[in-house]
Amino acid sequence: MCMVLDKSKNRVLVQKREKYWTGFAFPGGHVEIGESYYDSTVREVKEETGLTVENLQICGLIHWDCLDDGEQYLVYLYRTTDFSGDLLDRTEEGAVFWMDIDELQSQPDEKLCPYFRTYLRLFLDDTVFEAHATYSDITKEENPFEFR
């Protein structure tokens, strides 16, 4: 996932996602075979927004553990202020637009993708880098995030 920040206007690029997660979030996706996390992020941002991003800086890592089968997955978080190209209005993921960063932070939880407020902390707070959480598809049990 990547936060694209337009510093001159204090705004970030937001998707109003309609697939998988629903609500406001930053662009992102899955790594393809043979692709680095960095390259996958550049590709996903291009596919989902039309913009080309450069000089990504890693700003966080989220570690998920499934209590059912021990499966683990990682979410790498990047941010950048270097972008070019023409912004798309929407993709199959949903609408894409700029939003004032303060406005995004003040959105009610129901307008954000699940857990996105936790993700935002990692994007915006340089004192934390990693979050860890557990989940269960069977019992629907979730433990709150732990930050490091």
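(the above was protein one; protein two follows)
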Amino acid sequence: MLTPNDLAGCYPVRNEIPWGYDTRRGPSSGDGRIAILFMPKNFGKIEKFVHSILGGSKFLRRPMDPLMTVVWELCDGTNNFEEICNQLDSIFHEDIAPVQERTCTALDGLGRSGLIEIHREKPIVEHKICSHGLLNENFPWLHIEEE
């Protein structure tokens, strides 16, 4: 488990994962928006066979709460750990206290899930981190913000 000292000066960056805002659960912009991530399923041999027969989605939908949505948005490679903590503290005030520990736990969870990478130096982001949907899938409730 990471500690705030481990993350000092580090820059978290979202991996290239399809995501957008779930308009069924909140507004598409502003306070209370809810990000939803589409994580690819890792099928085993038997699961692939069953999926080929029964069909279904190849992605897990992972909705976030408003706090994790803001954490996700801030993981764009331009904000270091301290800047993220300051921004979260100014938005959520005592609801996120103690801010460094709660932010560290959130980033650790995103990292362990393979959703973000943590860089010691400010990274050059060469992959798509903005919201984007799934190819060949259309969800009318999914709001995508173009770059």
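Reviewer note on protein two: Helices lie at 4-7, 45-54, 66-74, 81-92, 99-112.
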